[in-house]
Amino acid sequence: MIAAIIVCLSVFFALVFTLAYFLKADLRDQIERPKYAFQDQLRRYNCETSNANSTNASTSDEQ
Fold first, then answer.
1. Going by C-beta distance under 8 Å and a sequence separation of 6 or more, which residues neighbour residue 22?
2. Is residue 6 one of the residues assigned to a domain?
3. What is the pLDDT of residue 63?
4. CA 24 to CA 30: how far, in whole Å?
5. pTM to 2 decimals?
6. Is residue 18, in this structure, part of any structural domain at all?
7. Which of 34, 44, 49, 56 has a Cα-to-Cα distance from 13 of 20 to 30 A?
8. Into how many domains does the chain fold?
């Protein structure tokens, strides 16, 4: 009995969240904002490390 209530409520809340996600652009933006922030940080890190590696490679050639 209690398991059926838990399953039904879980399905209900999943459906409510899914509908809200697709119908509300503000909610979707808020949920996905950390993903885009992480991607920007990762892109910046990769650019900095590739620039540092190319700088180190050119200075080691000079030595």
1. 28
2. no
3. 54
4. 10
5. 0.55
6. no
7. 34
8. 1
